[in-house]
Amino acid sequence: xxxxxxxxxxxxxxxxxxxxxxxxxxxxxxxxxxxxxxxxxxxxxxxxxxxxxxxxxxxxxxxxxxxxxxxxxxxxxxxxxxxxxxxxxxxxxxxxxxxxxxxxxxxxxxxxxxxxxxxxxxxxxxxxxxxxxxxxxxxxxxxxxxxxxxxxxxxxxxxxxxxxxxxxxxxxxxxxxxxxxxxxxxxxxxxxxxxxxxxxxxxxxxxxxxxxxxxxxxxxxxxxxxxxxxxxxxxxxxxxxxxxxxxxxxxxxxxxxxxxxxxxxxxxxxxxxxxxxxxxxxxxxxxxxxxxxxxxxxxxxxxxxxxxxxxxxxxxxxxxxxxxxxxxxxxxxxxxxxxxxxxxxxxxxxx
Length: 351
Ligand code: SAH
Description:
Layout: E1 5-6, H1 12-21, H2 26-37, H3 52-61, E2 62-63, E3 68-74, E4 81-86, E5 92-100, E6 103-107, E7 111-113, E8 128-131, H4 134-148, E9 154-157, H5 167-177, E10 190-194, H6 198-205, E11 212-216, H7 222-228, H8 237-251, E12 255-261, H9 269-279, E13 284-290, H10 304-316, E14 320-323, H11 337-345
Parallel strand pairs: 1-2, 6-9, 9-10, 10-11, 11-12, 12-13, 13-14
Antiparallel strand pairs: 3-4, 4-5, 5-6, 7-8
Helix pairs in contact: 1-2, 4-5, 6-8, 9-10
The protein binds S-adenosyl-L-homocysteine.
């Protein structure tokens, strides 16, 4: 018998072809697709409008990818939930559920670990273990919907991993999650965050997907960016910004610039001024994120006033900027640190 295939990976046309190829009728594809993407079924047994024979036949050749929560932390302050999910191969990833006025948002991981090497980030310390499949990205959301009993209307691909380093699966995920025959999330409610892989930004601009692009900028000059983000050596700042401009022109989507503020590194008035000059006229919004200190990095978070001062300078220069509200302060383990702590507790870290 062949390899077990993942039924959640298929688009509806692909699933239709697949079912025809195993001698089933076309309408079965639609039924199964709705079970997975509308009713969020986690097994073929639940698909009660399929005959028992068909359910058994499907179970023998296909699997339904699900997430198993190993740990869930729930904030008493704002209802934020942080999940550690274990995968079929015992790797673990983290996802975060946040309630906002405009709806519920989930921050998903796109890889187990990351290989981009940003110096302030916990996800990258042990490198990238593997890519997540589109089905594994979807399952983070579907599992959280089941757990909370609430609909998730927004997704940010800002958890562990570099989504554009896992391009095909990230784009497949976006198409599946936003498919009107399935989960039907507005693609406008999806934000993809990247450290700035130029060829993939340009490729994404041509996919015809109205997702918001967030660029992890973190520094207003090539030199400083190289110091804190190794990927900056491969792609020059001016080329990254030019790719972002193209993205805006082709999609009409306003850009978002992430700027993790690190005390004594990129937080001065001069940095703010330089940043304003750099992105002026780019239709962008700056998201200031006071850095979450990671034990291994030695970076410190600036005090609230200096971040506020930084924001003011940008505003004076007519650059839209907000300071990222910290969610789930009482269950604080942001940006890949929950997974890392979890592995440490289990004595699973390689080093
Ligand atoms: N690889 C993608 C997406 C994942 S990181 C990217 O680089 O954009 C999501 C965001 O969190 C990025 O802006 C990243 O730079 C930021 N980030 C990572 N670790 C952080 C930390 N310790 N404190 C603050 N922001 C952090």
